[in-house]
Automatic annotation (TrEMBL):
Belongs to the dpy-19 family. Residues 1-30 are annotated as: Disordered. Keywords: Glycosyltransferase, Membrane, Transferase, Transmembrane, Transmembrane helix. GO terms for cellular component: nuclear inner membrane. GO terms for molecular function: mannosyltransferase activity. It holds the Pfam family Dpy19. The gene is Dpy19l3. This is D19L3 mannosyltransferase. It comes from Pachyramphus minor. Coiled coil: none annotated. The chain crosses the membrane at residues 41-66, 179-197, 217-235, 242-258, 264-281, 312-329, 341-362, 416-441, 462-481, 487-509, 521-540. It is found in: Membrane. Residues 1-10 have a biased composition (Basic residues). It is a multi-pass membrane protein.
Length: 716
């Protein structure tokens, strides 16, 4: 098992608003510039300072996470095999394609090796570019080959520094989004500080560097910033076109770098749909965003050799359904309250039915089953019947796919983030309900008041989108812990925007009859500054201690295994074992695998279940036959899986296999009545006894405290 141990000493502003507002060009002290020239100079100075602060914070975050990574692993000092082992599970698989491209004789040969790959899945040739989102590795490897940096920078450092550099883009995008929403760069500063001080819950880039989300989320943040700007009123046509282009590019890059992009953008599309139905966003801009999502995803589909999982995505079906339904119901936003509600209900039903029909039709035509495990998992997770499906239970038993732990909120509360977030969320939700009701009422008097600027409660389109976005992604995070990083980063933006927003304080002060323009301005700046001082005072010493703590990578058993494989097995050898370990085997040794952690393929999922019979109660003849059917030469057994204690009974891998095979689980506890005792003992335990029935088929060739490697007999 990989561990981290203590290191031994040895080797040595104010943004210019497009919409008119009574607070335009207001200085932090509440004074208004005396003339137009003074106001312009103030805005230029403020934007310049805000921009410098944004870039500085982004770069500091990048250096911060890079330093943490170095301090945790002593990355600069450990051997290459140890560096590669530190890219655990699927991270190692993705990085292996970067390494493969770097080591190829030419770029063309490297691309050919990815398009016609026969080492990732034995006895099969697959197209890696079609199956996986690895274009970023391809691009980065080509860039490394053509730039004159080989003498100064190792390939692994070029790779990890790029990912850490993207963290700078991420923080700057969050900063800009908050700045655009509130009108002051002080809000962006607070958002960035909250992101950094809540690092445990906002990012995991320093220890899962090649993970797809670490590539994708910075582009998602850029897309949200661009959408926030797009939703402002009074944009010039040129500004709108450029912003739409920025949204498209960010959407495309986000979609290209993460296989779960379609589900994240589906939630985003739902947010747009809700706000459009409630007349809180301009319909024309929402339509453009629907089209951008579809076109970005289809372009990725083309680049991924018409990946059927993309064509069968719910996002494409949903967006197409919304556009079709809108052409059918042309007078959706006319009439009184009851009339509008009836039309909206019918509209929602039409969109839902069309989405299901279109999606069902596409999947039927394409014979698509690649994503069925996700829907099985969701069905079981939300209580729509128990399941014995191995793949669904594999997800259900992982902590990352469970509910968000309650201690997350205590950590977020320590920095005041959660308290401020709930406060702002409550005020904004109340305002949104009032505005939505007013919009649906469709009163001519209300519309006249809106034009005259006499409505007490208003909600700008960008703020409305941010509200629904954070609510929907909050629901996702609460239900699935792994997705919390999509919520917590936006939580920083939303809370800082509310704390620095004139509209929020104006609404609150008017409710208690204490509103004056000067009082709102004083609070708008003083509360965030006090919050920043508190965060700095409380967390700066902890950050310094964290940066001074030195540890090193330590996993001698895995290092020994990888070195043995490289030195004692032929290059063409095929290895079977757990998905997580085999990803490391491919990266460190280049040997052929039977299975791997990229689970978005039905045949691979079935193959993995069959390979995992090495941990089930099966006869040696059965296991040997299964492994040889996939061309296996060597099988690696792990004690940490065979004698697993990390999960409770019912969630251990061996329990999942027993239930799927119809066998009674080990240990004390209840079993379902139709489960039967197995005729055979557990394979991974019994093989170690070296009984003749096992040694006929398997010969142990390597052993240490963690791993046991057996060579398969090739008799027919």
């Amino acid at each position: 098992m990989t561990t981290i141990r203590q290191r031994r000493v040895g080797k040595g502003t104010e943004a210019a608003e497009d919409q008119p507002s009574e607070e335009t060009n207001v200085k932090p002290d509440g004074k208004i510039p005396s003339d137009c020239t003074g106001g312009k100079l103030w805005n230029i100075l403020s934007i310049t300072i805000g921009g410098i602060v944004a870039i500085s914070l982004g770069l500091l975050t990048s250096v911060y996470v890079a330093t943490l990574h170095e301090n945790d692993l002593w990355f600069s000092n450990i051997k290459e095999v140890e560096r590669e082992i530190s890219f655990r599970t699927e991270c190692g698989l993705y990085y292996s394609y970067y390494k493969q491209m770097i080591q190829a004789a030419s770029i063309q040969q490297g691309l050919h090796g990815l398009v016609y790959d026969n080492k990732t899945e034995s006895v099969r040739t697959i197209n890696i570019l079609e199956r996986m989102n690895v274009y970023q590795e391809v691009f980065l490897s080509i860039l490394y080959r053509i730039l004159p940096i080989q003498q100064y920078l190792e390939p692994v450092y070029f790779y990890i520094y790029t990912l850490f550099g993207l963290q700078a883009v991420y923080v700057i995008a969050l900063y800009v989004t908050s700045w655009l929403l509130s009108g002051t760069w002080l809000s962006g500063l607070l958002a960035a500080c909250w992101y950094i001080t809540n690092r445990v819950d906002t990012t995991r880039v320093e220890f899962t560097i090649p993970l797809r989300e670490n590539w994708a989320l910075p582009f998602f943040a850029v897309q949200i910033a661009a959408i926030t700007y797009l939703l402002r009123t009074h944009l010039q046509p040129v500004q709108e076109r450029l912003t739409l282009m920025a949204v498209f590019i960010a959407t495309f890059l986000f979609s290209l770098t993460w296989q779960f992009n379609q589900f994240m953008m589906l939630i985003q599309a739902l947010a747009l749909f809700i706000l459009d139905c409630l007349d809180m966003l301009p319909t024309a801009k929402v339509t453009w965003l629907y089209i951008i999502q579809i076109s970005g995803l289809l372009l990725v589909c083309v680049l991924q050799f018409f990946n059927s999982m993309i064509l069968g995505s719910l996002l494409i079906s949903f967006n197409a359904s919304v556009l079709i339904a809108r052409t059918i119901q042309k007078n959706l936003k006319k009439g009184g309250l009851l009339n509008r509600l009836g039309k909206l209900l019918l509209h929602v039903l039409v969109v839902l039915c069309l989405t299901l029909l279109i999606n069902k039709f596409i999947k039927k035509i394409l014979n698509l089953e690649s994503d069925e495990h996700i829907f099985k998992f969701l069905k079981a997770k939300f209580g729509f019947g128990a399941t014995r499906d191995f793949d669904a239970n594999l997800y259900l038993c992982e902590e990352a796919f469970g509910l968000l732990p309650l201690n997350t909120f205590s950590r977020l509360s320590d920095t005041l983030l959660f308290y401020v977030y709930v406060f702002v969320l409550f005020l904004m939700a109340v305002a949104a309900v009032i505005v939505a009701f007013r919009n649906l009422s469709g009163s001519k008097q209300v519309k006249l008041m809106e034009k005259m600027g006499e409505c007490t409660i208003t909600l700008k389109p960008d703020a409305a989108y941010s509200l629904v976005h954070t609510v929907l992604f909050g629901c996702l995070a609460l239900s699935t812990m792994r997705m919390k990083y999509l919520w917590t980063s936006h939580m920083c933006v939303f809370a800082s925007f509310g704390l620095c927003s004139t509209e929020v304080w104006k609404l609150l002060l008017k409710c208690v009859h204490l509103y004056t323009s000067q009082r709102a301005q004083v609070i708008k700046y003083s509360i965030p500054i006090i919050t920043l001082l508190y965060i700095s005072y409380k967390f700066w010493p902890g950050i310094m201690d964290e940066l001074s703590e030195l540890r090193e990578f330590y996993d001698p058993d895995t290092v020994e295994l990888m070195n043995w494989i490289k030195s004692s097995t032929p290059n063409t050898a095929v290895f079977a074992g757990s998905m997580q370990l085999l990803a490391g085997v491919k990266l460190c040794t280049g040997r052929t695998l039977t299975n791997h952690p990229h689970y978005e393929d039905k045949d691979l999922r079935e193959r993995t279940k069959q390979i995992y019979q090495i941990y089930a109660k099966r006869s040696p003849e059965d296991v040997h036959g299964i492994l040889r059917s996939f061309g296996t030469d060597y099988v690696i057994l792990e004690d940490s899986i065979c004698y697993e204690r990390r999960h409770s009974r019912g969630c251990r891998l061996r329990d999942l296999l027993d239930v799927a095979n119809g066998h009674i689980m080990d240990g004390l506890g209840e079993n379902e009545p139709d489960l039967k005792p197995s005729l055979y003992p557990r394979f991974c335990e019994e093989i170690k006894r070296n009984l003749p029935s096992y040694t006929t088929h398997f010969t142990r060739v390597f052993q240490n405290k963690t791993f046991h490697v057996y060579k398969l007999a090739k008799h027919k």
